[in-house]
Amino acid sequence: FLIKLHCFIININGVAEMNFVLSLVPLQEAFAKGLLKPGLNVAVEEEKKTANNVDGLKLCLADFRKDLPWVERLDLTNPPAVDVVAKAEGKQAVAAGEEVNAEDDFQREMFFYRQAQATVLDALPKLQKLNIRTKRPEDYFAEMAKTDQHMQKVRQKLIQKQQIMEKSEKAKKLREQRKYGKKVQVEVLQNRQKQKKALMSAVKKYQKGMTDKLDFLDGDQEKPKNSTAAPKTRMSKKGPNAKRKFKDQKFGFGGKKSGSKWNTKESHNDVSGFRARIAHGKGKNATGKGKRGNKRPGKDARRKMKGRK
C-alpha cells in the first residue's frame, strides 16, 4: 500500500516528492524486519551507571589530608549530652545509640542541640589546658565584613522605610480625623435644625395662645432631660387658657357646628337676659346716644399688654 501511494505521488508532483519517498526508505526497511510495532514509539534513554570507587576516594583523601595538630583542626566526634530537661519532666529522651526520627523536627533539633552541648563540654577543658582564651576581651576589635559605605546605605534604606511608614500612618490618622470631623459637623447641623424647629413650634404655640411661657427665648441654655415632660404635666393640670375657653364658649366645643347660632321659638321668647338700662343707655356701661363706649386699644398697645402678662 505504501509503495503504490508513493508511486502515485511521484507521477503527479514529479521530482519534488522524490526526497520524501527516499526518506521513508529506512522506515520501510525497519517495518519489513519487524522492528516497528503498532502504537506510539518513544525513544528510551540509557540508564546512567553509578560507580562506588572506594579505593579511589581513599587515595584522594590521602592526597589532600594534612596531619595538623588539634588546635588547628578543632574537630570533635562525640555522642549527645544527657537530656536534663526530659529527665526533670519525666519524659524518655533519645539515647545515644538509638535512631532519631528524621521527620520529627523537635526531636531532631534537640538531638543537634545536645550534641553541640556535649562538644562544648569536651572542648573547653582542652582549650584551657592549651592556654587558649575562650572569652572575648573587653577591648576586642574586629573588622566588619561589610564596609562602612555599605552599612550607611543599609541605614539610609531603613530610615526611608521608617519615614514612609510614619507618613502612611499620619495619612491614615488624617483621613480618620476628617471622617470624624464630617460626622461631627453633620451632627451639629442636625442639632441646629432640631433646635430651630423646636423654637419655631414654640413661637407658633405662643402665638396661638396654647402656652403663656417664654422659656424658648432663654437661648441655648441646656435643659434637663425631663424638661420636655414637665410642661405637659403642668398644662394638663392647669387646663386650657382663657383664650381657649372664650373660643369654646363662643363657637362651641365639639358636637354639631352648623346651625348652632340659629334662633328658635324658645330663644325668641326667652327675655331673661334683657336689661332695660343697658339697652336704653341708662346704665353704667351704656353705649347709647351721646355716650362713647370703651375704646378698643390699638394693635401695639394690645401687644404690650400681652407681653406684660
From TrEMBL:
Give one GO biological process term.
Answer: ribosomal large subunit biogenesis
Where are the annotated segments for Disordered?
Answer: 214-309
UniProt keyword terms in alphabetical order: Coiled coil, Nucleus, Ribosome biogenesis
KW Coiled coil (keyword) present: yes
This protein's superkingdom? Eukaryota
Major location (coarse): nucleus
Which stretches does UniProt call biased (Basic residues)?
234-247, 277-309
Protein localization: Nucleus, Nucleolus
Q: Where is the composition biased (Basic and acidic residues)?
A: 214-225
UniProt function note:
Required for the processing of the 27S pre-rRNA.
What family does this belong to? Belongs to the EBP2 family.
Write the protein's name.
EBNA1 binding protein 2
Origin species, per record, is Denticeps clupeoides (denticle herring)
| Gene name of the encoded protein | EBNA1BP2
